[in-house]
Amino acid sequence: MCSKNSHGESSIVPVLRKGSAVVATRAHMHYVVTEYGIAYLFGKSLRQRAHALIQIAHPDFSRLTFLLSLLFTLHSSLALPFFASSIIHAIA
């Protein structure tokens, strides 16, 4: 997958927008490949998955992705979908 979509937004996000379709759950995702590398996700904790995905994110977004993943993995009570998409759009 490309690290950026056609609108210049990161393809790697900490949460999905409300109404997004899910074609593969995190339990089914073993590898994610971008032009920046390969992340092996099978059997890893959420924090380990976040770290692996940050490593293959586009450099323009890796710091933002890292900060948001910390927010959502350390404070999961804040991970409300409507709140998260507002943050992502406000910062990006």
TrEMBL record:
Question: Is Membrane among the key words of this record?
Answer: yes
A Gene Ontology biological process in which this protein takes part is:
acetate metabolic process
User: What keywords are annotated for this sequence in UniProt?
Assistant: Membrane, Transmembrane, Transmembrane helix
Domain of life here? Eukaryota
* Gene3D superfamilies with a match to the protein in the record: Acetyl-CoA hydrolase/transferase C-terminal domain
Q: Which GO terms describe its cellular component?
A: mitochondrion
Q: Which GO terms describe its molecular function?
A: acetate CoA-transferase activity
Q: Where are the transmembrane segments?
A: 64-91
User: Which PANTHER family does its entry note?
Assistant: ACETYL-COA HYDROLASE, ACETYL-COA HYDROLASE-RELATED
Record protein name field: Acetyl-CoA hydrolase/transferase C-terminal domain-containing protein
